[in-house]
């Protein structure tokens, strides 16, 4: 079975880079996953956790062997990283990034890297680092792609296939519009989370306030627990759009302050807020209980799924969910889900003993 991509490089192997790398490995999408990071500890963890096959502390000739490169360092580091990679990149290679800001990043990278298309998966977590990476993070996520008139058809097609193969939904939006939109739906909420925490941190009653924090404060401020460096870069690099959004918020807050003296008007605002919040599209992954997945490479022969199910059944391992990931001429891949980590590890042993290949 020939994977979709040859050697793939992930530059910055933290939460996002690690999750993309795991998706590539679990879905057999790359011949080999290479990781580069400025932090040697991140690379050590990536190897230990099976996130990458090969790791590098320096860019060099190995970059020229990649058919696809994904930049996943904080936004403020992406332009420099692109400059360092440009001399080594193969002229036919595909490039993308997962940065949370697009206009400046795209302007910097599209003249540097061969077949480049900017991207931004609208999924994440308040936990940083490769140790928190998992392929499910990107599953069913909307993944913004930001083509310009300079984007090659090869980049447009190749990066879209990557996103779809990782189980996400590509959505094309021009870079500047992307930045205006995420300023309101992602960056302003982050800044608000910082503001609410700041209010508490500077209060003379800080300890008591923390003790009283129930769901409201916790839900509204979760994103403040993410990587401060990543988030700082995100809001600073999008400061023009974000300042406009802050201005709009200032006006809304003043309006709501006024409505405190007009209960009927405030009720209408509260009802409108409820309608808006309740009509958010349901993202499947967030409603499912946590599952522990295993991907198995399966020869394309009659009876293989039955053989796997029987081997697991006889070992007393219960399969909670099953999905056919790829069907190719020679072989395909199955995703099996188990309720617990222990069951998944037992399943891994049973299937390895039965001669199946697992990543
Ligand atoms: N965290 C999220 O929720 C989220 C969601 C979507 C997109 N993003 C974007 O993904 C990118 C990575 O964020 P993350 O959440 O994975 O952060 P992270 O802190 O988990 O990982 C960042 C990694 O990049 C490495 N790094 C830093 N500077 C580097 C450089 N110059 N060269 C190579 N590696 C470098 C760090 O050592 C770290 O391993 C950012 O551009 C961010 O805007 C984040
Ligand atoms: O923590 C999460 O659940 C996120 O989705 C993180 C989040 C967001 O809040 O918008 C943060 C930054 C991004 O670039 C994308 C996603």
From TrEMBL:
GO terms for molecular function: NAD+ binding; prephenate dehydrogenase (NAD+) activity; prephenate dehydrogenase (NADP+) activity. GO terms for biological process: tyrosine biosynthetic process. Its EC number is 1.3.1.12. This is Prephenate dehydrogenase. The keyword Protease does not apply. It catalyses: prephenate + NAD(+) = 3-(4-hydroxyphenyl)pyruvate + CO2 + NADH. PROSITE patterns: ACT, PDH_ADH. It comes from the Bacteria. Pathway: Amino-acid biosynthesis; L-tyrosine biosynthesis; (4-hydroxyphenyl)pyruvate from prephenate (NAD(+) route): step 1/1. InterPro entries: 6-PGluconate_DH-like_C_sf (IPR008927), ACT-like_dom_sf (IPR045865), ACT_dom (IPR002912), NAD(P)-bd_dom_sf (IPR036291), PDH_C (IPR046825), PDH_N (IPR046826), Preph/Arog_dehydrog (IPR050812), Prephen_DH (IPR003099). Keywords: Amino-acid biosynthesis, Aromatic amino acid biosynthesis, Coiled coil, NAD, Oxidoreductase, Tyrosine biosynthesis. Residues 232-262 form a coiled coil. Residues 293-359 form the ACT domain. Pfam families: ACT (PF01842), PDH_C (PF20463), PDH_N (PF02153). It is an enzyme of class 1 (oxidoreductase).
């Amino acid at each position: 079975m020939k994977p979709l991509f040859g050697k793939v490089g992930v530059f910055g192997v933290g939460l996002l880079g690690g999750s993309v790398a795991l998706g590539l490995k679990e879905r057999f999408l790359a011949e080999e996953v290479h990781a580069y990071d400025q932090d040697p500890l991140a690379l050590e963890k990536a190897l230990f956790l099976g996130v990458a096959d090969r790791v590098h502390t320096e860019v060099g000739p190995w970059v020229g062997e990649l058919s696809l490169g994904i930049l996943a360092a904080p936004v403020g580091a992406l332009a420099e990283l692109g400059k360092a990679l440009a001399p080594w990149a193969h002229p036919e290679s595909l490039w993308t990034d997962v940065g949370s800001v697009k206009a400046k990043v795209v302007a910097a990278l599209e003249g540097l890297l061969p077949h480049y298309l900017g991207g931004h998966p609208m999924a994440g977590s308040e936990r940083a680092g490769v140790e928190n990476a998992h392929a499910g993070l990107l599953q069913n996520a909307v993944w913004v792609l930001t083509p310009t008139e300079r984007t090659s058809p090869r980049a447009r097609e190749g990066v879209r296939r990557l996103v779809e193969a990782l189980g996400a939904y590509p959505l094309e939006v021009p870079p500047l519009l992307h930045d205006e939109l995420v300023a309101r739906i992602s960056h302003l909420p982050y800044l608000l989370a910082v503001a609410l925490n700041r209010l508490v941190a500077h209060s003379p009653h800080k300890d008591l306030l923390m003790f009283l924090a129930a769901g409201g404060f916790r839900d509204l401020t979760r994103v403040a627990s993410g990587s401060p460096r990543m988030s700082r870069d995100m809001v600073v690099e999008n400061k023009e759009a974000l300042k406009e959004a802050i201005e709009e918020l200032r006006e809304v807050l003043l309006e709501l302050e006024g409505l405190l003296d007009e209960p009927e008007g405030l009720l209408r605002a509260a009802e409108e807020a409820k309608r808006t919040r309740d009509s958010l599209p349901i993202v499947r992954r967030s409603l499912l209980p946590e599952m522990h997945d295993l991907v198995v490479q399966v020869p394309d022969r009659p009876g293989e799924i039955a053989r796997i199910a029987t081997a697991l059944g006889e070992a007393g391992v219960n399969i909670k969910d099953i999905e056919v990931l790829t069907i190719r001429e020679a072989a395909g891949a199955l995703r099996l889900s188990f309720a617990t980590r222990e069951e998944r590890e037992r399943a891994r042993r049973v299937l390895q003993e039965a001669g199946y290949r697992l990543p």
